Amino acid sequence: MLNDPIPQRREIREIYEKIYTRIPKVAEAEINKANKLLEQISMFIDYEDIDDEDIEDLVDKIKDFYETASNSLVNVHGNLSVLDGIKKDAKTIAVAFGEVEKGIDCKDALDTLLMFSKDPLSKLERLLLTLQVVQKDVEYVTRDVAKRKDNIFVDNGGDLSARYEESRSKIEEDCKLVADWKVM
Questions:
Q1: What 3-state class would DSSP assign to 106?
Q2: Virtual CA dihedral for 46, 88, 91, 120, nearest 10 degrees?
Q3: Cα–Cα dist 35/30, whole Å
């Protein structure tokens, strides 16, 4: 390090040197975090060439899932405000995927930090968190539906047609009786 006789200049050079020596470490940490995040997201969706319409369609399907679950009286409720926020920010989330991929591919540490400067990882983390919550809800609904099916088999001794056999025979008898009536 240069021994500068002017303390203010020396101080600024020391600060610059501390920052400059940390840039590669910070860039590497950002790349590691981005790779981990993309790996987790890839377990849920294929993010290659994803655009805002794909994200909007995904949110619509998630909303349909929660609506169907609600109509089926399954105790699962989605956070619609979060889903609406993701749908509203679909364009920026799609751009964030591109920025993260470009940041990972950069050879220069400073370029990498510039690609991550708009914090695209936070947008992707929000999407990942939502996908993880939906996955847990899907697993809960699957278990609940399986439990309901088991209850139906237990009530009828395993035969689903036996449950309504008595009602069916009564309706058939009534149909025969009504068929004999004459309309005047």
A1: coil
A2: -80
A3: 9
Q: Is the distance from CB of 144 to CB of 136 less than 8 angstroms? A: no
Structure tokens at 164: 């309504």
Residue type, 30: E
Tokens of 68: 């169907």
Cβ atoms within 10 Å of 86's Cβ, excluding its own: 21
- Taking only the tens place, the pLDDT of each residue in 115-141 is 998 899 999 999 999 999 999 999 998
- The label of the residue with tokens 């369609």 reads 57
This prediction's pTM: 0.73
- In the chain, domain spans: 7-179
Burial class (CB in 10 A: 0-12, 13-18, 19+), 130: buried
